[in-house]
Amino acid sequence: MRFADISGHDDVKQRLRAMVDENRMPHAIMIEGPEGSAKFALARAFLQYIHCTARSGGDSCGRCPECKLSATLNHIDTFISFPVVKRSGRGDTSDDYLAEFRDYVRDYPYMDFEEWLRRLDNINAQPLIYVSEATSLIRKLSITSRRSDFKTSLIWLPERLKEDAANKLLKLVEEPASDTIIVMVSNNSQQVLPTIYSRTQRVMVRRYTDTEVAEIISCKASMCETDAAIIARLANGNINEALRLVSVSKERKKFLEFFINLMRKAYQRKIIELRQWSADLAALGREPQIQFYEYCSRMLRENFVLNLKAPDLIFLTTEEMQFSVNFARFITNLNVMRLLDTFGKAATDIAANANSKIVNFDVAIQVILLLKRD
Questions:
Q1: Fewer Cβ atoms within 10 A, N terminus or C terminus of the chain?
Q2: Treating both helix axes as pointing N-terminal to C-terminal, what angle do 249-267 and 271-282 enclose, rounded to 10 degrees?
Q3: 87 confidence band (pLDDT: 50, 70, 90)
Q4: Quick one: DSSP state of residue 144?
């Protein structure tokens, strides 16, 4: 990972670069900021810059053996620590999950924590950094560096250090060896043990602007500028959230088609066609139907706001806007709340294993009754 591979954050890059160029690297650094702001990528680029043997133009070369090892998180003098879940028959140190973590970082360079939970096969888990990891890290850093002038430690989410692990690492942070650099990357530094936090040099990483988010996702996905801008506004500076929204864009197109068919057939009172619509929606499966009704609720809110003539408050894609321009006038203060209640109840009923076809057809009838209220 080179600095050039990371969009924006020129001020942070310059600060990290200067630490190395001017030989004034602190022994403990805390790179902090909101999730999805490229903090971990910046930390990786910083460590690669430290180890690179052919730096030029304010960046690592990307070609020397040290850069190639750093790029794949395989540098022998960089030790990576991250939260894991205790699992029967498996250890609880980062080394026990290192292969999965390397794959995860390759696929999700902006460190989507929800995806890491999925990789651990436990979305409801609370991954932690245990005392065994702290013991292992202290042992590794006590060994003389083998390829580089510095031994480096990269700790992702130090706020997830268990108290005994944090206390064990405290002495290392207070009195590191002269050739040791510890870099911590935190989403919530207020939860880091205060005695550790106070002994680090902090580097704050801001949220991406909407414009920066739009540029990033436009490069990663085939998307028009208008839709990229809408997603950027919804993501609120979080690249991970923006990429999640991009990943479901195909699903949203399918939901939009179902939504348009529902509204058009309900307005025309085509009962037989609505019965088939109910069956087609049920065929999607339980979870997609719940997501569809959540999508319907969002479309109702957006169409209601569209009537207020406040474009800065509207978050509709190009295709959604094409339909909503003519449809929004049918969503008024007389029916919007009852329609929202109808969709909300449908999602709840389907989640409770109700018969989907019956629920969907009941929704269709309710829309017929509510859509023409005036």
A1: C
A2: 160
A3: confident
A4: P
pLDDT digits (tens, 9 = 90+) for 96-125: 999 999 999 999 999 999 889 888 887 667
Q: In Å, what is the CA distance from 189 to each residue of 56, 224, 257?
A: 33, 36, 44
Q: Do residues 162 and 130 make contact, with C-beta atoms less than 8 angstroms apart?
A: yes
The answer to whether residues 184 and 31 touch, using CB atoms and an 8 Å cutoff, is yes
**Residue 249: predicted pLDDT:** 62
Residue 370 has φ and ψ, to the nearest 5°, of: -95, -25
CA–CA gap between residue 240 and residue 135 (Å, rounded): 32
Average pLDDT over residues 187-202: 94
As beta bridge partners, residue 203 has 31
> Taking all residues of the chain, what is their mean pLDDT, rounded to a whole number?
91
The owner of tokens 């160029």 is 21
DSSP letter at 74 equals -
Rounded to whole angstroms, the Cα distance separating 75 from 183 reads 15
- Tell me the residue type at 279: A
pTM exceeding the 0.90 threshold for the entire prediction:
no
Q: What gap in Å lies between CA 359 and CA 345, rounded to an integer?
A: 9
